[in-house]
Every structure is written in structure tokens, then in C-alpha cells.
Amino acid sequence: MRLSSLALVAMLMAAVYGVHQYVIKQVTSGEPRIALPQAAPLVSGPIDWSKMQAGLPAGMSEDIKRYNAENLASQNRDMQRRMEDTAAYIRNPAGAAWHGMPPH
């Protein structure tokens, strides 16, 4: 039983070694392993850089300005409210509606 198992393992190792040697020979031969058809080269004219548009589209810059103005106004309102809450807490910390420092 052991001898037949040993013989089977030896045959498998010999097969793996043979496959390994074949692959090494094919890889190092330098020949292409598959034939790929060559496509025709792409021929294009010179690039006209004057047609390229740089920057934002026409209507987008106005949208960005409006968006930034709305965000700035919102941040100013939030900061003003926080400052008023902090001032109210400093004037009367015991009578505040919240416990601890004002919300951030």
C-alpha cells in the first residue's frame, strides 16, 4: 500500500516537473504564444487648441457665486446665534435653559 502511494506521488511529481520545464521553455523562447492581429494605426490631424474651452460653463459661475453668498449668509447667522447664546450664558449661567456650556 505504501509502495503504491509512493509510486503515485513520484509519478505526479514527475508530471508537475515536466509541465514546469515545458512552461519555462515556452516563456524563455521569445516567440509569441498567441498571434494577435495588428489593427490599422489611428491617423488624426493636428489638434486645434483654439477650440478647447477652459473654465466653467457660462451659467455655472453665477450659480457658484449665489451658492457661496447663501453659504456665507448662513454661516453668519449661525455664528451670530452662537455668540448671542454664549453672551446669555455668561450673563446668567444658572438661569440658562441648558445645562453646561451653550451648544456648539
Walk me through what this model shows:
The mean pLDDT is 82. The protein contains 2 helices and no strands. It is mainly α and 104 residues long. The protein starts with a helix and ends in a 13-residue tail after the last helix. Helices cover 59% and strands 0% of the residues. The longest helix is centred in the last third of the chain and has 34 residues.
Brief descriptors of the model:
elongated, 0% strand, single chain, mainly alpha
Largest beta-sheet characterization:
none
- Please indicate the percent range of residues in DSSP E strands (runs of 2 or more): under 5%
Rg over CA atoms, rounded to whole Å, is: 39 Å
Note the total helix count: 2
Distance between the termini: 80 Å
Structural class: mainly alpha
Mean pLDDT across the residues is: 82
Silhouette: elongated
Helix content: 55-70%
Order of helices and strands: HH
Pick out the low-confidence regions: none
Number of strands: 0
Please give the structural blueprint.
Elements: H1 2-28, H2 58-91
Can you describe this structure in just a few lines?
The chain contains two helices and no strands.
